[in-house]
Amino acid sequence: MKPLGVGLIGTGYMGKCHALAWNAVKAVFGDVARPRLVHLAEVDTQLAAARAAEFGFDKATGDWRTLIGDPDVDVVSVTTPNQFHPEMAIAALQAGKHVWCEKPMAPAYADAERMLAAARSSGCVAALGYNYIQNPVMQHIRTLLDEGAIGAVNHIRVEMDEDFMADPEAFFYWKSERASGYGALDDFAVHPLSLLWYLFGHAETVIADMTKPYADRPLPQGVRRTVENHDAASVLMRLQGGISAVLMANRAAWGRKGRIALQIFGSKGSILYDQERMNEFDLYQTDGRATEQGFRKVLAAPAHQPYDRFTPAPGHGLGFNDLKIIECRELMRAISGEPASIVTFEDGLRIEKSVHAMAESFHERRWIEIG
Description:
This protein is α/β, with parallel strands linked by helices. The protein has helices at about 15-30, 45-55, 65-70, 85-95, 110-120, 135-145, 185, 190-200, 320-335, 345-365, and strands spanning about 5-10, 35-40, 60, 75-80, 100, 125-130, 155-160, 205-210, 215-220, 225, 230-240, 245-250, 260-265, 270-275, 280-285, 295-300, 345, 370. The strands form three sheets. Strands 16-15-14-13-7-12-11-8-18 form a nine-stranded mixed sheet. It is globular, with a radius of gyration of 21 Å. The chain starts with a strand and ends with a strand.
């Protein structure tokens, strides 16, 4: 199989993250062919040329359609703001390109459905950027659950909090626009929803509340603009198998930087995990004498593969970008026809459906069943 030709649309935070992954995946894993960084697109040719030189891409363009039309591009990374995902991903799939699109799929559910339809028609691999499921610690937690290490799971609590929108005087930007989605739910809470899906399956019934900590934000011109979506949300859920779950998300939580606090309670123990300490988890089991029972901390180590591909030393730790490299390798395996752990557009649409059901529940003030 010839090396994959990569196209990258968008070079902000997530665009650079994708570029780092494409650059590093061969060096880290060795069992995939080194991708060819073919074409990069940005909002104008000058910025595109600068980023292409920094990231190592051969060609640059100010028109993303030119990138998609490039016959040397086999797979397209879409890392633009949420509202641009549908048009770009669908165009890439219709052109016969594989797609690696950042989450969420789209602000509108109908657009997400169109994305899935395009993926099905194309026969190409279409994956979403939910790299938290790639954490070796999270993979081991799933193994423990599959082995019944804490018995039958009966309740889950998950909180996602960050403070990048906590300052009421921070300038209004696109994440507060209605066009970008509901706010905390689809821009943000889709990450813990991906973890719940990975560990337990999808939500089946939901009831939600959303709130706006700040009604408006300043613009550079000195006026203020109304905040059009919600920065915090609380959701009660029933997951597959009838497991009860609570989800809370807040983009305006001072002091929280990257927190996904996951608590899993079972009949024979509990598991605690926090994304701010992503290289460890706490395990409580009822085995043994009551006098010695208690939580024990488990640090990530080479035994939690593929941690060993990054460092041979326990406790040194992986980071966010490392999880993206793992995700990139899984995507490449899927493209080559091998079994792979990715969030496909199929599973992504179900996550989107859960989010829209939560928003519907908030507006109608009732429980919603997800078909």
